[in-house]
């Protein structure tokens, strides 16, 4: 009966024959590792079987966990999205807080370094008209602010106070078309006047064509205008061209990024020669 | 009866193999036992192929100085494969038979040499030309032998028919 079954199933017969041959070979030789070939072959075959079974089990497990058992994933996904959004908002808050802290620290350092009496102010509003580059700060005449006081930031000169109410002041930014400041090229000491060009930045006028000015030169306040203290950064020379007449046509890139301003310092100490305009302290 | 005939065919192939080589050394490359195993497998199926391969291989191994079982394992696999091909495909024309003989020789060489190499018992440096030559030789002898064995019974029958009836 068994023999008939064997003859009808060549696969079984082949398996039996292979086992027989391997056993026969194993009885005669050892493998390279010194172990009987039968042991090596049996172990190798069984290891392959184990590998296949493990692979099938892992595949089934992956299929179950990855595709079939996804009942709670929808709700979990929604909860996670909500949590992610909350964390993103929290991150933005933290980032804003860190940036604000850094800005305030820089402002404080500037205040200590400037040796000028200053007061910190926060920008509470931008200009009402796009034609005029102004901002509103939260300090006014009650804080001893007056017109033509210089407004600075850690990066450089911001502008001047043009209108002061008891609790707020309007500041004309240096890039406003009506703004101007006495300036000097720090490297060559060439003097001129920096005027605002609106959104296009600044231009330095009245610099003689013989003056040594190069792109990249630092432009600082000269202090001769009676508003801005001497030596504060205005910006860097962007381009230098031969203008009409005997003057250079110099474009200056502002050091201050006016669109990102949040806190500024108002210089309470008037420049030399303007003491008479100092505002009397409020009682 | 069939088993006995198979064993006789194998024995005859072995005898021919051992004697023919003495007279014609060039025939040493041809494996007559393998040819018989393939012939039996193609004619009677995989079971016969396995039995024939096992028996022929064991006898051949016992007569040689190699490890007993390696040649047998190779011939068993060849017998099974040839038997399967014989049952799954129509292998009656010379060309398909030629291909089967070539394939059987290559399979045998791969298993035989591979096992010896695997066990570190023997090395076969650059065996490709030898295996290719043996494959072609086995295929030619196998196909011719197949044709003769198929032609011979018909020839006998026709001769018997031509013989005048005696009363």
Core attributes:
heterodimer; A: 283 residues; Thrombin, subunit H; 2 domains; 6-stranded antiparallel beta barrel; 4 helices; 12 strands; elongated; disordered C terminus; B: 167 residues; 6 helices
How many strands in all of chain B? 0
Please state roughly what percent of the residues of chain A sit in beta strands, choosing from under 5%, 5-15%, 15-25%, 25-35%, 35-45% or over 45%: 25-35%
User: Rough shape of chain A?
Assistant: elongated
Order of helices and strands of chain B: HHHHHH
Percent of residues of chain A in helical segments?
A: 25-40%
Most extensive contact = A-B, 18 and 24 residues
Q: Share of helix among residues of chain B?
A: over 70%
Percentage of residues in strands of chain B? under 5%
Largest sheet report of chain A? 6 strands, antiparallel, barrel
Largest sheet, spatial ordering of strands of chain A = 1-2-5-4-3-12
Instruction: Summarize model confidence as the mean pLDDT of chain A.
Output: 82
Give the number of domains of chain A.
Answer: 2
> Care to count the β-strands of chain A?
12
Could you name the CATH topology of the largest domain in chain A?
Thrombin, subunit H
Number of discrete helical segments of chain B: 6
Topology overview:
The complex is a heterodimer of chains A (283) and B (167).
Chain A: H1 2-8, H2 10-28, H3 37-68, H4 73-114, E1 118-126, E2 134-137, E3 150-152, E4 157-164, E5 169-173, E6 180-185, E7 191-196, E8 202-205, E9 218-221, E10 233-242, E11 248-254, E12 263-267
Antiparallel strand pairs in A: 1-2, 1-12, 2-5, 3-4, 3-12, 4-5, 6-7, 6-9, 7-8, 8-11, 9-10, 10-11
Helix pairs in contact in A: 2-3
Chain B: H1 2-23, H2 32-44, H3 46-63, H4 70-88, H5 94-118, H6 128-162
Q: What does this molecule look like?
A:
The complex is a heterodimer of chains A (283) and B (167). Chain A is of the alpha+beta class and 283 residues long. Chain A has two domains: 31-115; 118-269, Rod shape-determining protein MreC, domain 1 (Thrombin, subunit H). Chain A is built from four helices and twelve strands; from the N terminus they run H-H-H-H-E-E-E-E-E-E-E-E-E-E-E-E. In chain A, the strands form two sheets. Chain A has a six-stranded antiparallel β-barrel. In chain A, strands 6-7-8-11-10-9 form a six-stranded antiparallel barrel. In chain A, strand 7 (191-196) and strand 8 (202-205) form a beta hairpin. The longest helix of chain A has 42 residues, at 73-114. The two termini of chain B are 34 Å apart. The mean pLDDT of chain B is 85. At the A-B interface, helix 1 and helix 2 of A face helix 3 and helix 4 of B.
């Amino acid at each position: 009966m068994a023999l008939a079954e064997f003859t009808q199933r060549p696969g079984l017969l082949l398996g039996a024959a292979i086992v027989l041959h391997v056993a026969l070979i194993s009885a005669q030789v050892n493998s390279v590792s010194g172990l009987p070939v039968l042991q090596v072959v049996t172990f190798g075959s069984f290891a392959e079987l184990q590998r296949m079974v493990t692979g099938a089990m892992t595949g089934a497990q992956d299929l179950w966990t990855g595709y079939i058992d996804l009942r709670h994933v929808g709700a979990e996904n929604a909860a996670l999205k909500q949590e992610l959004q909350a964390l993103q908002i929290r991150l933005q808050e933290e980032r804003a807080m860190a940036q604000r802290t850094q800005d305030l620290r820089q402002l404080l350092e500037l205040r200590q370094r400037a040796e000028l009496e200053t007061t910190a102010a926060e920008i509470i509003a931008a200009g009402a008209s796009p034609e005029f580059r102004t901002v509103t700060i939260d300090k006014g005449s009650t804080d001893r602010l007056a017109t033509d006081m210089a407004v600075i930031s850690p990066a450089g000169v911001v502008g001047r106070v043009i209108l002061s109410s008891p609790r707020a002041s309007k500041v004309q930014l240096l890039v406003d078309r009506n703004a101007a400041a006495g300036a000097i090229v720090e490297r060559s000491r060439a003097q001129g006047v920096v005027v605002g060009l609106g959104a296009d930045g600044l231009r330095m006028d009245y610099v003689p064509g013989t003056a040594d000015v190069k792109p990249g030169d630092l432009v600082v306040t000269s202090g001769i205008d009676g508003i801005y203290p001497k030596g504060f950064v205005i910006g860097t020379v962007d381009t230098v061209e031969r203008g009409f007449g005997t003057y250079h046509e110099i474009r200056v890139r502002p050091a201050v990024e006016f669109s990102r301003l949040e806190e500024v310092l108002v210089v309470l100490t008037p420049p030399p020669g303007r003491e008479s305009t100092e505002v009397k302290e409020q009682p | 009866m069939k088993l006995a005939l198979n064993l006789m065919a194998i024995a005859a192939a072995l005898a021919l193999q051992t004697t023919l080589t003495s007279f014609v050394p060039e025939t040493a490359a041809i494996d007559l036992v393998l040819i018989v195993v393939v012939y039996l497998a193609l004619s009677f199926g995989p079971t016969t192929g396995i039995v024939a391969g096992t028996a022929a291989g064991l006898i051949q191994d016992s007569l040689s100085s190699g490890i007993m079982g390696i040649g047998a394992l190779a011939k068993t696999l060849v017998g099974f494969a040839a038997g399967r091909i014989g049952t799954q495909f129509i292998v009656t024309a010379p060309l398909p038979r030629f291909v089967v003989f070539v394939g059987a020789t290559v399979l045998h060489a791969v298993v035989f040499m591979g096992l010896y190499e695997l066990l570190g018992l023997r090395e076969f440096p650059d065996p490709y030309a030898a295996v290719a030559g043996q494959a072609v030789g086995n295929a030619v002898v196998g196909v011719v032998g197949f044709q003769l064995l198929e032609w011979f019974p018909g020839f006998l029958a026709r001769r018997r028919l031509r013989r005048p009836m005696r009363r």
